[in-house]
Specification:
With 143 residues, this protein is of the alpha+beta class. β2, α3 and β3 form a beta-alpha-beta unit. The longest helix is centred in the last third of the chain and has 34 residues.
């Protein structure tokens, strides 16, 4: 679990993580959230809101085996019940680490995020090829 929490701290430092109900809701509504994480001891009302945010933002929502105080300490707060990872690479890494801890519970989430990350990488490559063609002109081959 420490690997997951340290990865979340790294995502926070990189600016790819939203902590707390309001920022998570805003990220989900803007469709920036890729994975919403919920503390194991979060209130039922908070869990309901997190699932609603995930549906509204078309992202995944999972409950992790860390308590609110552990999750908060990982991101530099005293307590945190809800987090949103906004980068698909970080979200995939977190899901893979969770799947390594409990394949049965988090395996499907890790697979879905791996597929999303692969599609995002392909789109990035296509955009880079397009930008290069715009800058230099597409080279035509003689027939």
């Amino acid at each position: 679990m420490n690997n997951v929490l340290s990865l979340l701290g790294l995502a926070k430092k990189a600016g790819r993580l939203e902590a707390g109900e309001e920022p998570v809701g805003a990220a989900a509504r803007a469709r920036d959230a890729r994975l919403i994480l919920l503390a194991s001891d979060a209130a039922d009302n908070t869990a309901r809101r997190a699932k609603h945010f995930a549906e509204a933002g078309a992202c995944l929502c999972v409950t992790i085996p860390a308590a609110k105080d552990e999750l908060g300490r990982a991101v530099g707060r005293t307590s945190c019940a809800m987090l949103a990872v906004t980068d698909v690479g970080f979200a995939e890494a977190v899901a893979k680490k969770l799947a390594a801890l409990d394949e049965k519970r988090y395996g499907e989430t890790a697979e879905k995020l791996s597929a999303k990350a692969a599609r995002a990488a392909e789109r990035k490559k296509e955009q880079a090829r397009h930008d290069k063609n715009v800058r230099t002109g597409k080279k035509r081959t003689k027939k």
